[in-house]
Design a protein that fits this description.
Length: 249
Amino acid sequence: MTAKFFDWRKETGKKFWKDFGKDVGKKAKRFFGGAIAALAAVFVAGAFLFARQTKNADFLVSAGENVQSCLAETYLAGGAGIEMQAGGRAYAVYACYAGENGKSLAEAAQATIGGRGGNGKSEIISQTRRAIYLKTSAQKRRKNEISGILNTLNECADVLYLSAREAERGEAGQATLKETAKSTAMVLSYLSKHAGNADEAAKRCAAACGRVSEELKEIAAGIVYSRDLRRAQIEICFAYLDFSGAYSI
């Protein structure tokens, strides 16, 4: 699900994200060992590159009219149980799938949910932010910062998605899931403090990162369930789409 990138560089952006990677790597190594330090380094890989295209996200949602009831139903079914707005109405989200095969994965999950029965129907809502277009001189000066934030959010969402899938299949133990939640929380915490307040989109992104970071810390403190990681992943996808939307055509 990696996007294609322009090979545009800027010294200030490189220094910012280089320091980001060093700081997160040191903290991760101190608390969780070399394996998680390597994971943190993956988060910022490619952060110097400017995104040509951004994430496609396919949300599997409940199509029921009573949102509160649907939120409870999706959560009990193992889904995220988180609310999203689309087309002027609210939906309860089971899961979010991204990348070229996101739609097919969402359709497969939809078929599985349909096979279980249930009180309501589900549908797939696709959201895409196509091309990044920086309109002002101030935005153009921030191109490396913007692409770094997008790439970091993308990697955080990917790791949580994969961890949720492993948890669901019983392929990862609690120790591994807790470390993933903690390391992702660490990266998001750093991002919340350094995403900046250059504009409203940056402020919203920083706030979202801080909120999800705290949620992941709470998740790591108890038994980690796939649905909780999935919920955090979807919140990061929301932040990604909102932030990229501020600079998209």
